Amino acid sequence: MPMNERELQARDSLRDIGAELLQSIRDVKAGKVGRVNLVKTTSAAEARQRLGLSQSQFAKLLGVSVRTFQDWEQGRREPSGAARTLLRVAALRPDAIHEVLAGHG
């Protein structure tokens, strides 16, 4: 059962956050890792990161809205044919995309 605000404050007033943080660091260094969350990266996010562009810069390059690109990057929607191909090229050969961008500077 969730605690109410007063119960949370009472519990937290007894905590030594500094000591908890130090213990967490010791645990990590000792290889005692608690919960590990794996995040799957979408092809859109991987391509953008390999190019070193912001979401808005990459969306402009692809000719789509930032919102559409965010949907692709967060896995809410899938890019279609041509965009999917460009994302693959960007992920595999970011140098080729940079070369094209430099030629249009």
Describe this structure in words.
The chain is mostly helical and 105 residues long. It has a domain at 43-103: 434 Repressor (Amino-terminal Domain), CATH 1.10.260.40. It has seven helices and no strands. The chain has helices spanning 5-13, 17-29, 43-51, 55-62, 66-73, 81-92, 94-103.
Largest sheet: none
Strand content: under 5%
Order of helices and strands: HHHHHHH
Which CATH first-tier class of the domain at 43-103 would you pick? Answer: Mainly Alpha
The residue ranges in which pLDDT falls below 50 over 5 or more consecutive positions are: none
CATH-wise, what's the superfamily of the domain at 43-103?
A: lambda repressor-like DNA-binding domains
Distance between the terminal alpha carbons, to the nearest Å?
59 Å
Classification by helices and strands: mainly alpha
Number of helices: 7
CATH architecture of the domain at 43-103: Orthogonal Bundle
Gyration radius (Cα, Å) is 22 Å
How would the global form be characterised? elongated
Helix content: 55-70%
Number of strands: 0
Nearest-integer average pLDDT: 88
- Output the CATH topology of the domain at 43-103: 434 Repressor (Amino-terminal Domain)
